[in-house]
Write a structure and sequence with these properties.
about 35% helix; about 30% strand; 5-stranded mixed barrel; alpha/beta; 7 helices; about 240 residues
Length: about 240
């Protein structure tokens, strides 16, 4: 049992899927997994462990932003000896080269954040995915004829900002999309020598204000969730 996750040792699988939203974790557990147990609900952040196609998987929320995913991923890696975390989330596109419903496998996350610097003395503005799980996701997508795009992403501390223009760091590192967690996850995994990946679904096109409706989101996110689950069991 860690400070923020109340599961006992042995109740968290070696591979964890991390959506941001606790209710999305619940949805995945109930829709896709068998013999599921709720192993932690501290602070309303749900973690479920069960079986997908006969292999043990845990799914649990990260919350929003680097401080939150930084806490949960660190405790999973260190207190529960998790080997691999796959973040599954949504993102906004900075340009119209990306489209609604596109599935992105994040190659690098760039950020202005000081999270990696002050947590682990990592000075880099851009951090790569960690370990083999990125390649496993690509191979799994190919196996199931699922089209994905490998990209760099801007991981931002800021959801609302005064200047609506594309931030300089996104231009510098050719980041066509923005989200809020991958950089922190990759930093933790780099420091600890663990595996980490991020799969995203494009739900907003920022310059045109296109958005996936609330009714569409459940169906829209299913291909990404299924890809993450299949890649997770391939990694075991």
């Amino acid at each position: 049992m860690s400070i923020h996750i109340s599961a006992d040792k042995g109740e968290i699988a070696k591979v964890v899927l991390q959506p941001g939203d606790p209710l999305r974790a619940q949805f995945i557990a109930e829709k896709y997994m068998e013999n599921v147990e709720l192993v932690s609900k501290t602070r309303g952040i749900f973690y479920y462990t069960g079986f997908y196609k006969g292999k043990e998987i845990t799914v649990g929320a990260s919350g929003m932003g680097f401080p939150s995913i930084g806490i949960y991923s660190y405790e999973l890696f260190t207190e529960y000896e998790v080997d691999t975390i796959i973040r599954i989330g949504t993102c906004g596109a900075y340009n119209t080269d990306l489209h609604l419903f596109d599935i992105l496998n994040v190659e690098n996350a760039a950020s202005e954040s000081t999270y990696a610097k002050y947590a682990w003395e990592i000075e880099d503005e851009i951090i790569c995915h960690q370990g083999d799980i990125f390649n496993t996701i690509n191979k799994t997508a190919e196996k199931f004829s699922l089209k994905t795009k490998n990209i760099n992403v801007h991981s931002s501390d800021i959801f609302y900002r005064k200047n609506p223009g594309i931030p300089a760091i996104a231009t510098k590192y050719n980041c066509p999309a923005v989200e809020m967690e991958a950089f922190g996850l990759f930093a933790n995994a780099q420091h600890l020598g663990k595996n980490a990946a991020t799969i995203l679904t494009v739900t907003d096109i920022i310059p045109t204000n296109e958005k996936i409706s609330a009714d569409q989101r459940e169906k829209a996110l299913n291909p990404m969730i299924e890809l993450a689950l299949e890649a997770a069991i391939e990694s075991l």
